[in-house]
Structure to design on (288 residues):
C-alpha cells in the first residue's frame, strides 16, 4: 500500500503541517495528517482526486461516479439523500469529501469522521476546490500540483474555443440541464463554458446558476441553438409553442447521450471534454 501511494505521488506518512480550510458550509476544517482512506460522495470530487493522481486513496464513492474506470470497482455508497451510512463507516475512512447539500454530514461528524463539504458552482469555485482537495490530501507540492491541473484545464478550454465555427459565435443558446425545465444559467460553470465558446446564453446571470424556467420564457427568448440530453430532446415537438423557436425550425439542436451528459453537466476537471463535445456539435450545426 505504501509503495502504491508513493507511486501515485501521495504521502504514506503523516504530514507535519496541518491543512486548514473553510469548506462550503462555512466551517473551518483542519486536516492534521495525510488521509490514507478517502471517500467521495460527489462525482466531480472523485474526478478531481484522480486527476490530482491520488486515485489510490479512494476506498468508496457515490453511486453516480463512473470516471475514471477504476472507480467503478469501488464500493458505491448511494447519493446525496440516501448515503449508505453503515457501509460507509465499515470502510473506515479518515476523510469524506461530499457536497454541501449532503444529508449525512452531521451524522458522520458525530461519529468523529473528518468531513469536508465542497460543491463547485463556477469555474473559479472549481479552482478553489482543486486547491483545497490537494491540500487536504497533503499531496507533495500541493499548490503546484493543483495549479498545474487548473492551468491545463484553461489551456484546453482555450483550444476548444479556437475551434468554434465563426458562424456560431454570438448565437443565442438555451441549455436545458435537467428535466422540469431546469436551465444552465450564465452564472453556472456550464454557462461560463458557453460564454468561453462565444455563445450568448438566454438565461442571464441574474436568474441564478440553474433556474427552473417557464417554457414560455424560452419561446420568447427564441434561442438559435438548444443543448440538452437526448432523452429530453424526444419531446421537443410536443412542447406547446416551441415549434416557433428558431433553433427547432432550423434543426440546430445538440442532444447529448447519457454518457456525454455525465461529462457536460459535471463541475469537475473534465470541463474541457465537455467543451469539446459542444464544439463538435457546433461544427455539425454550422459546417464551414
Amino acid at each position: 500500500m505504501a509503495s502504491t501511494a508513493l507511486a501515485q505521488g501521495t504521502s504514506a506518512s503523516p504530514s507535519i503541517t496541518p491543512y486548514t480550510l473553510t469548506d462550503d458550509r462555512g466551517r473551518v476544517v483542519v486536516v492534521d495528517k495525510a488521509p490514507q482512506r478517502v471517500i467521495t460522495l460527489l462525482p466531480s470530487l472523485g474526478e478531481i482526486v484522480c486527476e490530482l493522481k491520488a486515485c489510490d486513496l479512494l476506498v468508496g464513492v457515490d453511486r453516480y461516479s463512473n470516471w475514471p474506470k477504476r472507480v467503478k470497482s469501488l464500493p458505491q455508497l448511494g447519493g446525496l439523500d440516501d448515503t449508505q451510512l453503515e457501509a460507509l463507516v465499515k470502510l473506515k475512512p479518515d476523510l469524506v469529501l461530499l457536497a454541501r447539500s449532503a444529508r449525512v454530514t452531521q451524522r458522520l461528524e458525530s461519529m468523529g469522521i473528518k468531513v469536508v463539504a465542497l460543491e463547485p458552482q463556477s469555474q473559479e469555485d472549481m479552482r478553489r476546490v482543486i486547491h483545497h482537495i490537494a491540500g487536504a490530501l497533503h499531496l507533495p507540492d500541493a499548490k503546484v500540483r493543483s495549479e498545474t491541473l487548473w492551468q491545463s484545464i484553461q489551456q484546453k478550454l482555450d483550444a476548444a474555443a479556437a475551434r468554434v465555427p465563426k458562424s456560431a459565435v454570438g448565437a443565442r443558446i438555451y441549455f436545458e440541464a435537467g428535466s422540469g425545465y431546469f436551465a444552465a444559467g450564465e452564472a453556472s460553470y456550464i454557462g461560463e463554458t458557453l460564454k468561453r465558446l462565444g455563445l450568448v446564453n438566454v438565461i442571464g446571470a441574474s436568474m441564478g446558476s440553474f433556474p427552473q424556467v417557464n417554457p414560455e420564457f424560452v419561446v420568447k427568448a427564441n434561442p438559435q441553438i438548444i443543448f440538452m440530453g437526448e432523452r429530453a430532446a424526444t419531446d421537443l415537438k410536443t412542447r406547446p409553442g416551441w415549434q416557433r423557436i428558431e433553433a427547432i425550425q432550423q434543426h440546430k439542436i445538440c442532444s447529448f447521450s447519457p454518457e456525454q451528459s455525465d461529462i457536460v453537466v459535471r463541475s469537475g476537471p473534465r470541463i474541457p471534454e465537455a467543451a469539446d463535445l459542444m464544439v463538435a456539435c457546433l461544427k455539425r450545426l454550422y459546417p464551414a
Observations:
- The chain has a mean pLDDT of 93.
